[in-house]
Design a protein that fits this description.
This protein is α+β, with helices and mostly antiparallel strands. It is built from six helices and four strands. The strands form two sheets. A two-stranded antiparallel ribbon has the order 1-2. The protein has a two-stranded antiparallel sheet with strand order 3-4. A hairpin with a 2-residue loop joins strand 1 and strand 2. Helix 2 crosses helix 4.
Length: 167
Amino acid sequence: MPKGILALTIHFRPTPEDRARTAAKAQAAVARPVPLNTREMALLAALTRAARSFRPCPNNFTLQHDLHMQNAWLIYTFRSLQERGLIVLERKGTRRRVIINATGERTDWSAHMRSEPRAPAMRKCLGGCGKLFQSSHPGHRICDTCKRSDDYKQASANSYSCGVSLS
């Protein structure tokens, strides 16, 4: 320490009154609930609506669409509501239901994921013709007309699935 500078350290010992004041402030801070953010309010409102109308718990895709929320935020918000004690999330395999603690209302059990078969979709043929055709599943990308063509049969006989030719 340079000469001429006096270092003064004061040790403060709190009195019982100081301790009581500090404890009262801490208790008041804990007792005062932290307000919900907009994501939490929106998710809680959506879950409450589902519970009040005796509907199944909405799945993540529906909630993402309805609340304009990305999946990561949705998961974070679900956890936040659980940690605050506002909801209880019950799970059975891939199914879930939510209990709203403030009212005791609960959603019905959600459906199993992929409980319904996918509907056929119209897709553009990648086999060369480029026409729209009814595809039976996501991997069905070449129409039957192109599959019956000689070019397709010859190409599939002479190549690996990755498109590398054997000749």
